[in-house]
Amino acid sequence: MTFKGENHFVIVGWTAKSKNTIKELFAAEPKTEIVLIDELEKTPYEHERFLYIQGSPTDEETLKRARIEKAKAVLLFAPDGITNPDLADGKTLLTASSIERYDEGTESNIYTIAEILNERHVGNFNHVKVDEFILSHQSVSNLMAKSAQTKGTSHLFTQLLSRRDGDAGSDLWEVELKPEWKTYGEAYEALKNKGAQLIADRDDLNILKKWHDSIPKEARLFVICDKKTYQRI
User: Fold this and answer.
1) RCK N-terminal domain spans which residues (predicted)?
2) If you placed Cys at 69, which of 35, 46, 108, 228 could pair as Cys (CB 3.0 to 4.6 Å)?
3) What separation in angstroms does the CA of 17 have from each of 11, 25, 39, 79, 137?
4) What's the pLDDT tens digit per position in 179-227?
5) Same domain for 138 and 169
């Protein structure tokens, strides 16, 4: 099978985590299309907007069939069957390296997100230009510690990470910059009046400390609100 569309998500590796990610992506956007790359004998998932491509993610022909150069993002998951974190991350790193090599021939700047088991390997993934990292074990450990220190914290993160409340639940969204927003304060007030809470510019959460600062052209503003509010914005 070969995928013919674009603006899809490519999932590399069928695991319990990637299965849940696929469900979340479909819940987030009804028109989402997803391509899974793995070496299973048959498709592990059935959906009208889901395509399974059998093959190695290190093989250029497999990546071409998934049309990763036209994807919104490529998500690399740590394999379930490898218990040694070094070996598991090594396999993910090899896939990331193959995607980087493929990307050089397309000049598409493929956006990749990788699950990493050992934080010490982050430098290696930076070397192959992975855009984002999810530190699998550390994320759970940090959330457990934070919940122990400040009871109820986990409920806040669960609310943002889950769509169990449907369109009425709060979620994290990126909003388009408006020409009339000259400072962060102006953006904050305008969004607040529409029912959205401005919380960050990229990974900077100190919006209130930058109230009078001008918003740079490269800014990416993130808000928390429900889906209907976001659609109005």
Assistant:
1) 6-135
2) 108
3) 11, 12, 17, 10, 13
4) 999 999 999 999 999 999 999 999 899 999 999 999 999 999 999 998 8
5) no
